[in-house]
Task: inverse folding
């Protein structure tokens, strides 16, 4: 659960109850693709139980699951079908189809092939932290994230979100940490990073399973290469790769997170409690490491509207 993270800030003022969320999601349940349908998407029970709830609450944290299904239609197969149809027309009429007719043939060919096409399904975890006003999507693809956000905004009146934004960009911060060899408090730098030149060469240097506290890395940064990815660990509990776009990839919970748990302590509720419990502390620490929040209007509004919290509070 949550191998990747794209984080959004929920605008102040949005209020919703779990029952209302369930009712809204029930209007757009996932259904498999029809015979000639290329893609289908919708909400499925996060526990994986047939006819289960579409919105689950564990310890006050809301968890949803968004499912997509797409027909796999290789371009070469489609092109061969179009060619066959064009050849039939040429044989029957003695002329080659023009551009407009070829486009129509392509649409016809697609309709012919879709009922026989294989399907591919994929699901994405969605976490809503109402108290911290955070929306977290378990994906590293911005296109998929945009699709899910659109579905949520359409389903939930008054919901407004914006990508998490910080005073210091992730790229500038990563460059500083590598150059000074000084990670932010509570974090450590691991053994993976990617540096890319900002000039026309677009030269890329990648380090994997390699120490980064070396002069060579500092020299690359001095020469103008900027980090696009950097592996880090938070509090010896969660490892991840931070990207220039403030996404977290390859999220993994370390052994210290599971100390004291028995073998029978697994299951959906335990997984949600562990994931949200750890990440609800990591996210604010990362925001602080990046200079705090507020470059966007929504981020500024969220920061100013946030109530004062104790040091031990999750956000």
Result:
């Amino acid at each position: 659960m949550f191998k990747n993270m794209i984080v959004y800030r929920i605008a102040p003022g949005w209020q919703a109850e779990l029952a209302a969320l369930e009712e809204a999601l029930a209007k757009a349940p996932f259904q498999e693709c029809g015979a000639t349908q290329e893609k289908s998407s919708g909400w499925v029970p996060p526990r994986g139980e047939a006819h289960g709830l579409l919105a689950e609450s564990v310890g006050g944290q809301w968890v949803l699951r968004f499912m997509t299904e797409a027909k796999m239609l290789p371009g070469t197969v489609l092109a061969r079908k179009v060619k066959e149809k064009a050849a039939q027309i040429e044989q029957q009429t003695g002329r080659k189809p023009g551009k407009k007719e070829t486009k129509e043939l392509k649409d016809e060919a697609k309709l012919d092939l879709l009922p026989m096409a294989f399907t591919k399904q994929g699901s994405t975890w969605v976490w809503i932290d109402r108290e911290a006003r955070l929306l977290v999507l378990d994906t590293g693809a911005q296109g998929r994230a945009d699709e899910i956000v659109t579905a949520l905004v359409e389903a939930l009146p008054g919901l407004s979100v914006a990508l998490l934004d910080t005073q210091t960009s992730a790229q500038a911060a990563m460059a500083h940490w590598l150059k000074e060899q000084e990670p932010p408090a509570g974090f450590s730098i691991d053994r993976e990073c990617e540096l890319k030149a900002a000039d026309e060469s677009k030269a890329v240097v990648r380090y994997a399973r390699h120490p980064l506290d070396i002069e060579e890395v500092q020299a690359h940064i001095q020469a103008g290469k900027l980090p696009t990815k950097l592996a880090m660990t938070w509090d010896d509990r969660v490892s991840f790769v931070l990207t220039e776009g403030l996404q977290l990839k390859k999220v993994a919970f370390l052994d210290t997170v599971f100390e004291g748990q028995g073998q029978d302590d697994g299951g959906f509720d335990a997984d949600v409690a562990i994931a949200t419990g750890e990440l609800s502390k990591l996210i604010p620490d990362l925001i602080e490491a990046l200079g705090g929040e507020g470059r966007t209007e929504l981020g500024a509004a969220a920061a100013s509207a946030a109530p004062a919290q104790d040091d031990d509070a999750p956000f």
